């Protein structure tokens, strides 16, 4: 999966904001409900996971976010935000979401806050 060049500027802006936060970040990839069968992506599960992984790697490589802060999950077409009965609905469901998680660390946590 590739990042859409049209939204890279937006992703760069978001990355500059979340880089300053201590929070963990969940990246979730999604697809529409149309079956995909290609050698690169045998299923929508593979495609949605690849979409999330692409964004995670971009955030690590280009914005130097700490890898321990990021997680990547693919949901295929299981969590639509629109009905899949129109091309517009399908397009809305092909997405990647970046979720800034609540910071649950205490003031006594170590310098690497997500280790036990």
Return the domain count: 1
Number of strands: 3
What top-tier CATH class fits best?
Answer: Alpha Beta
Regions with pLDDT < 50 over 5+ consecutive residues?
A: none
Describe this protein's structure.
By secondary structure, this protein is α+β, with helices and mostly antiparallel strands. It has one domain (5-100): OmpA-like domain (60s Ribosomal Protein L30, Chain: A). Helix content is 33%, strand content 13%. It has helices at residues 8-18, 44-63, 87-93, and strands spanning 25-29, 70-74, 96-100. Strands 2-1-3 form a three-stranded mixed beta sheet. β1 (25-29), α2 (44-63) and β2 form a beta-alpha-beta unit. It is elongated, with a radius of gyration of 16 Å. 18% of the residues are buried.
Write the layout of secondary structure elements.
Layout: H1 8-18, E1 25-29, H2 44-63, E2 70-74, H3 87-93, E3 96-100
Parallel strand pairs: 1-2
Antiparallel strand pairs: 1-3
Compact summary:
With 116 residues, this protein is of the alpha+beta class. The chain has helices spanning 8-18, 44-63, 87-93; strands spanning 25-29, 70-74, 96-100. The protein is built from three helices and three strands; from the N terminus they run H-E-H-E-H-E.
What tags apply to this protein structure?
alpha+beta, 60s Ribosomal Protein L30, Chain: A, elongated
């Amino acid at each position: 999966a590739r990042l859409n060049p049209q939204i890279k500027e937006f992703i760069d802006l978001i990355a500059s904001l979340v880089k300053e936060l201590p929070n963990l970040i969940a990246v979730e990839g999604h697809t529409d409900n149309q079956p995909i069968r290609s050698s690169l992506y045998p299923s929508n599960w593979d495609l949605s996971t690849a979409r999330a992984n692409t964004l995670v790697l971009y955030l690590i490589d280009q914005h130097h976010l700490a890898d321990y802060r990021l997680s990547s999950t693919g949901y295929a077409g299981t969590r639509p935000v629109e009905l899949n009965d129109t091309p517009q609905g399908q397009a809305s469901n092909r997405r990647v979401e970046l979720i800034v998680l609540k910071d649950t660390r205490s003031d006594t946590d170590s310098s690497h806050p997500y280790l036990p």
